[in-house]
Design brief:
Helix 1 (about 35-45) packs across helix 6 (about 215-230). Strand 5 (about 115-120) and strand 6 form a beta hairpin. The protein has a six-stranded mixed beta sheet. The chain is built from seven helices and 15 strands. It has one domain: Rossmann fold, CATH 3.40.50.880. The N and C termini lie far apart (about 45 Å). It has helices at about 35-45, 75-85, 85-100, 110-115, 210-215, 215-230, 240-260; strands at about 15-25, 50-55, 70, 105, 115-120, 125, 135-140, 145-150, 155-165, 165-170, 180-185, 195, 195-200, 200-205, 205. With about 260 residues, it is of the alpha/beta class. The structure holds glutamine. Glutamine (GLN) binds near residues 30, 76, 80 and 167.
Length: about 260
């Protein structure tokens, strides 16, 4: 199912192009997660790439070579129950995609689905794709809700977001976290990890949407996709491309502080 409204206008004017799969985008799109799709498009166009988006949903199969980037949003327990039964359709292609190191961002329910299973708030064990080793248990009648900040030392970046989940995730040995919790809940109450980083797959509990609040992460993911597709092209660095954007954000924050 194509998102006609989201296709880049006049794609022929752009030197590059990206095909982006939005996994279960019609069913998993909580807390503004679809804003991530807009950010991917914004950054890709800035880097000279026209975008075409396709929702991959119930009954669809997934072929790795058809897409350059995958986005998978968050969902509620009921939708996750329904989608779990469909995951076998996308599984072979998605597993190949992740292992090949192609880029993906998965939020909350999507992140949970990349792992072995999710135990929902009612205690049902919902099978995931099993592509990665993490498991997701549950806080029961409690949830992690609120602002969160994490630090990724490898990238030298700090990410800000808003989390709302009852699932608590435990990473396996070969998965790194997306960052260490500075404040907020994160993956679980027992370690200070938040999210997941495996090859070029990124998982996180951040809504908000994460990419609009953390443009460096949006740039990182889009750039991976472009470099894989156009290995001989030298793409501009984040600072070159978005110097104005960051100073605009700082001005905006200052204005908000001053008027409050
Ligand atoms: N239903 C899942 C949970 O509560 C995922 C929530 C979400 O994607 N926001 O943990």
């Amino acid at each position: 199912m194509s998102y006609i409204s989201l296709q880049t206008n006049h794609p022929e004017k752009y030197p590059y192009d990206l095909k982006i799969a939005h996994f279960y985008g019609d069913l998993m799109n909580t807390y503004g997660d679809n804003g991530n799709v807009l950010l991917l498009k914004y950054v890709a166009e800035k880097l000279g790439a026209a975008c075409a988006f396709e929702i991959v949903s119930l009954g669809d199969s997934f072929k790795m070579s058809d897409f350059d980037l995958v986005f998978w949003g968050g969902g509620q327990d009921f939708e996750q129950q329904v989608i779990s039964e469909d995951l076998q359709n996308v599984l072979p292609g998605l597993k190949e995609y992740v292992e090949a190191g192609k880029p993906m961002l998965a939020i909350c329910g999507g992140y949970q689905f990349l792992g072995q299973y999710y135990i929902d708030a009612a205690g049902n064990k919902i099978p995931g794709t099993g592509i990665l080793g993490h498991v997701t248990k549950n806080l029961g009648d409690d949830r992690f809700i609120g602002d969160i900040e994490i630090r990724n030392e490898e990238f030298g970046e700090t990410y800000y977001g808003f989390e709302n989940h009852s699932g608590i995730t435990y990473l396996s040995e070969n998965e790194k976290p997306l960052g260490r919790v500075v404040y907020g809940g994160g993956n679980n109450p027992d370690d200070d990890t938040e999210g997941l980083h495996y090859k070029n797959t990124f998982g996180t509990y951040f809504h908000g949407p994460i990419l609009s609040r953390n443009p460096r992460l949006a740039y990182r993911i889009v750039r991976i996709a472009l470099e894989q597709k156009y290995p001989s092209v030298q793409f501009p660095a984040f600072d070159e491309l978005f110097r104005d954007l960051e100073s605009e954000q700082i001005t905006d924050i200052k204005r908000k502080i001053e008027t409050n």
